[in-house]
Amino acid sequence: MTQPWLRAPDLDFARVRDELGLTADFPAEAMTEAERAADRYVGRRADRRDLELVTIDPPSSMDLDQALRVRPDGDGYLVHYAIADVAALVTPGGALDTETRRRGATVYFPDGNVPLHPRVLSESAGSLLPQQDRAAVLWTVRVDSAGDVRETTVERATVRSRARFDYAQVAADAAAGSLHPAITGLPAFGAAREEWALDRGAVMLELPDQEVVRNDDPRKARAWTLRLAPSTPADRWNAQVSLLVGMCAGTIMREHGTGFFRTLPAASEDAVDDLRETAARLGVPWREGLSPGRFLAGLDPAAPSTLALMSTGASLMRGAGYRAILPSEDFGPSDADLVHAGVGGLYAHVTAPLRRLADRYATEVCLAVTAGRPVEDWVVEALPGLGKIMSGANSVASSAARRSVDLAEATVLSDQLGARFTATVMRAANERKAAEIFIAEPAIIAPCDAAPSPGQACTAEVTVADPQAGSVGFTAVAAGAAG
């Protein structure tokens, strides 16, 4: 049942920010520190402005944490990854440091964000904007053709990004054979590292990512729309660079017995059994010996059954957390306690310090231990409490994203009660939740009564659309075989 592209004339996300107690304003003393921020390590940096680095980010982003260079290197790849050196701009124990520890992370909304740092720092002085000299932490990693790391160094450096790209542009340039010289090795590197990760049990879920977008074309009436966030091969390639450096950081910190890790336990047998049962019910073959990650990676993205299998596969990723280890621990955790099963090894957040607090501290550990010096006290003292801060920040960010989409869905459908849409069932009902359906246009994921089995197509009728409560609901009125 094809519907016109539905629009909401106006959406007030300030309401969601208020409900979550969020404000973009900073205390006066913290703002003053940000405005006066200067490099605390000036004169102690390598000059690497010779490196031809570029950034790859969404078009509207101004808080550019990373600049990269990925080139073929013999039978492998040479990766340079420059990360904004936020620790050089934030005084430990100062007002800005205190405020960022309260916030934990940047929180994103369709109409902007509530930043971790004042914009004068996160979108200007600290951001790796093109043609600007910037303080950075430079990772240099040599990777062989199989994706194995052969050499890693990390140092403070001055860098200068040459150009700014978005994902769509990089993907288009790759298809046309006209990639910027800095990233000619990126597609092959990304593919090699994806294979490397899958060989180690990594799981890469491809689930619909809803996006609430405002039309700012002055020739048209302003309106908000719900759509699927665009995804390109360049998104995956770029993510593999970040994952590589995060895994190098995890290895460095584990070897030296100090650090802060992003963790995920191995999937439970029940979760794997559920995925196998769903595959069997949908008639999707699972070859003997194939890991869950390999099975999911091999699915046909166009098949409705894939949506149901990816949704079921999300249970493989339950239990994500954080773990600090300190030099004073006599008996530290095992690798099983520290591993991130979703990426296939030890992993730490170090690549987004403008937007995520923990990265500043984990990076400082890596810089210290690779230089053979003690980790500074302000870093060690912060490690035990970082997990609580980051878990709280993640919860707020998740709520902000979900409530923003809920508000958009309810508003878009508020005059559509009784309208019918073609949907695919993502998840079956259980004792706690109704079944869940996916509608492609407008992009909606919502509860649905009387839904058929996961992976099946159905016609779903809007029965609830309450913008005040931010809730929507459907009832399946007809079912058909998934194509």
UniProtKB/TrEMBL annotation:
Q: Which GO terms describe its cellular component?
A: cytosol
- List, alphabetically, the InterPro entries matched: NA-bd_OB-fold (IPR012340), RNase_II/R (IPR001900), RNase_II_C_S1 (IPR040596), RNR_Ribonuclease (IPR050180)
Superkingdom field: Bacteria
According to its UniProt entry, the protein's GO biological process terms are: mRNA catabolic process
Q: Which residues form the signal peptide?
A: none
Limits of the RNB domain: 45-372
Question: Which Pfam family, any one of them, does this sequence belong to?
Answer: RNase_II_C_S1
Citing just one GO molecular function, the answer is: RNA binding
SUPFAM superfamilies given for it? Nucleic acid-binding proteins
Identification of the protein by name: Ribonuclease II
